[in-house]
Amino acid sequence: MRKIKLIEAPARQEQLDDLAIGEQVLLSGVIYTARDAAHKRLVDQLKAGKPLPVPLKNQAIFYVGPSPAKPGRVIGSCGPTTSSRMDSYAPLLLDEGLKIMIGKGQRSPEVTAAIKRNKAVYLVGIGGAAALIAQSVKAAELVDYADLGTEAIYRLAVERMPLIVAVDTKGNDLFVAGPKQYRTLPF
Amino acid sequence: MREIDVGRITEAVAELCVKACLYLGDDVVALLRKAKAEEESDFGLYVIDCLLENLEIAAREQIPICQDTGMTVVFLEIGQDLHLVGGDLTEAVNAGVRRGYQEGYLRKSVLSPLSRINTKDNTPAVIHTKIVPGDRLKITVAPKGAGSENMSRVKMLKPADGLEGIKQFVLETVLAAGASPCPPLILGIGIGGTMEKAALLAKEALLRKAGAPSPDPEVAQLEAEILDLVNQTGIGPQGLGGKVTALAVHIETYPTHIAELPVAVNIQCHAARHQETVL
Hints:
The structure holds two protein chains of two kinds. By secondary structure, chain A is of the alpha/beta class. Chain A is 25% helix and 27% strand. A five-stranded mixed β-barrel of chain A has the order 2-3-4-5-7. Chain B contains eight helices and ten strands. Chain B starts with a strand and ends with a strand. The relative contact order of chain B is 0.21. Chains A and B meet through helix 5 and helix 6 of A and helix 3 of B.
């Protein structure tokens, strides 16, 4: 199996620069949750020149809407959601300093270009492995947008969250390179 | 005439919602294990192992397999000799969804399509009723996640497009979906009827025991051919590249008009959640 690297959030540039597509990483540190509705608000606020409820510089955003935490647990199940729905918002956030995006599935060429431009990375978790991923979340605290329910922004403390490098700082894309090797269609 | 109080339907639906979101059927587990023998890519094997481990964790810790506990699709087969008493059937089903999602700590994902304001209790359910012979009520609860539902398609093909057109449309749909619907997939395909009938057939096809072929040999042959094609796309588990893009293809057909060939592809991730009971 591939080499497993340890990385931290907020991001350290030298760790990101060292990543290549297809490598497995274990991410530890502090990350923020945000998906569809929270992205819309963040970008609306940015465009209006208003302060954001979360920092962006060197931060990591996890595209997730967790299931509710049962009593005694910090979070419910929390696998990544489809990243492409955040594609129209991501370049602006990257240009504002966001360094790590965590989701699932392929990104648009615009996002990949913004990743390369900002020396950021896109990491993927295994969609559907939500109970497994929840094991790596050690604390969860509401930050803002509470009215959005599962779509609110939470600050998560994570330890050794298992992820795969899907787009690296050079703009290489695993979702292009991976399937090509196994495609046997006669056209 | 046999009577059932709709309160029993509420109780049953609540229980089925929780059960469906926490446990996956043995049929899907068997297909995942079989896929391990067929997969060649390291990532593919890693993904399948993670999905199997995830099922064990969800069952042990009593938490949902996937955080997206879906929009709740409920199929009711109501015997024509059965009398439902004690309240409104639709409200009884929705009360069950409300209770199940609250008490089961399931995610509330349903909202108004335009204002995007969440109903906060995962209601309303999408309810499909069918009147059948007898005096029983069969309830099937099938929570459907958005990752895979979003990649589903319906197309009105021309009769001249024929079998090749059907195969091509399914393949185009799977290729366009790529990694987004969390492969390995189960494909529910509805062929025939009208536009909405094809879509419903596709959804119903997902309720079949995963991997069980159609009893119609001609349809079973088409299922096998489409599965083979889909697994040549190279998409693989999670779209990271591999041999196993789909675990199974289920096709349901219905007669259609001389001028029509409706085809619906309902994409399902490995979390093919459905639980049923008969009252």
